[in-house]
Amino acid sequence: MKKTLIAALVPLIASSATVANAQSVIFNSPSQYDSGSGTAVATNGNGAGLELEVHLGGPLFNNYAVWRKTGEWSTWFSGGQVPGSGSADCLGGGTQDCATAVSAAGDSASSSSLFTYVGSQILRGGDSYQMAIDYRTGTMGSTGSMTWNSSGTLYGQGNCDTFYPTVAQASMDGVHMQFVELNNGCIAVSPPYANSQLYYTTGTLNIDGKTINWNSPVAFPGTAGYGASVAMWPMHDTNGNPLSTYFVVEEHTVQNGGSAMYYTTGVLTPGSSTIAWDLPSAGFDNGISPHIAVCSEDNKSGGAAVIDVHNGGGQGWYKTGRINGHYINWQANGHEYDVGSTMVGGPSVACTQNWGVETHENSSGQLISTKFTEN
After folding, report:
1. Is the per-residue pLDDT at 16 higher than 90?
2. How far apart, in whole angstroms, are the C-alpha atoms of residue 268 and residue 36?
3. What is the pTM of this model?
4. 103/184 Cα distance (integer angstroms)
5. Residue 65 CA to chain centroid, in angstroms?
6. Beta strands 212-214 and 114-120: pairing type?
7. Euclidean distance between the first and final Cα of the chain, in Å?
């Protein structure tokens, strides 16, 4: 089914017009790299970049074991299970992380090899739910080896059906890392999804370089919805000098069973438990399960500063934009990629400067990755 596109950006401010000389993204041929569901991909900014991909070991709601894959721009390295506190089949008593949904983050703005993933509804002590979001950090070696740190509970919100967390991280120097996690709160498990109050929490990397000091969750003040994604980037002034603040952008689908997508930008000051969001949220396209990544700032490094990927009627679509102060100038129209494949759920995307990678699940339960370059 062909996706209906919004012809023009709904501006946050009068000067936030669509990009006249819109940048393009060139996708390579897609390829299968694994099987499973719920894929999430992240990268860092070290040269061509290292990549971490995490996913569930089987069809959604059938196998909750968390698996990972590592790689670099040219190829995927071998992968394996993520250690944790459950067995391989998530029935307890073993050494396997389990979740119903996962999200991954890397520092695209620096060469830090620290990666983070979060998972919702981790199974503990047998086949029963602990209603919480857990996180785990790890560092990646140059050959793709992962050194995982102990897991920790971010927070829980009581007896909710699901969380669908998303996480972002960034730093000025690759050491003093800032984090933002965003989730759906309590929503219906299956379509048509009810509109949901989104929640977010900020965090800072502790001095041990392994654990995160998370603040208490805060209700997101923008529009309600589901399928949220968050990304962030250290801010600079017009001369390129670093500021002590971070650009944050989230996007999500709104409406009960609808497909209107909205985004909201904001500014995070280190040490603050809240984000200064630029309200109201603004509509920019139609689709479901959008995912956003910041590739560079103000196009100074070339390529698209921001890229969105989403499911548009079973096909993958992308849209690029440029950061304009606290806002984004989006392309007037989106573009289809991975033509001929049937996408299940939502895609994930990560990028840095002039290149990136997208991952998604197809209707055969195959996990597909597509590398891309930016002009």
Report:
1. no
2. 35
3. 0.88
4. 13
5. 19
6. unpaired
7. 29
Listed residue (244, 243, 245) closest to 275, CA to CA: 245
Q: How far apart are CA 5 and CA 66, in angstroms?
A: 35
Tell me how far CA of residue 151 lies from CA of 44, 103, 116, 129, 181, in angstroms.
Answer: 21, 14, 10, 17, 16
81: CB partners within 8 A, 6+ apart: 57, 65, 66, 67, 68, 88, 96, 97
- Bond from prior residue into 234 cis (ω within 30 degrees of 0): no
- Per-residue buried b or exposed e for 302-334, using 16+ beta carbons within 10 Å of the residue's own CB: ebbbbbbbbbbbebbbbbbbbbbebbbbbbeeb
The whole-angstrom separation of Cα 248 and Cα 267 is: 6
Rg (CA), the chain: 19
Residues in the chain: 375
Of 200, 203, 172, the residue nearest 297 (C-alpha) = 172
- Which among 4, 16, 37 is positioned nearest to 263, based on CA atoms? 16
Amino acid 194: pLDDT: 59
Report the candidate in 41, 38, 31, 42 with the shortest Cα–Cα distance to residue 65: 38
Exposed e or buried b for every residue in 76-85, given b needs 16+ CB within 10 A?
bbebeebbbb
CA angle 351, 204, 115 (to 5 degrees): 35
pLDDT digits (tens, 9 = 90+) for 87-144: 455 655 456 788 888 999 999 988 899 999 998 866 554 445 556 788 999 999 988 8
Q: What are phi and psi of 340, to 5 degrees?
A: 100, -15
Tens-digit pLDDT profile for residues 159-217: 455 578 999 999 988 889 999 999 887 655 555 455 678 889 999 999 999 999 999 88
Q: Average pLDDT in the 310-337 region?
A: 89
Token pair, residue 7, equals 């012809």
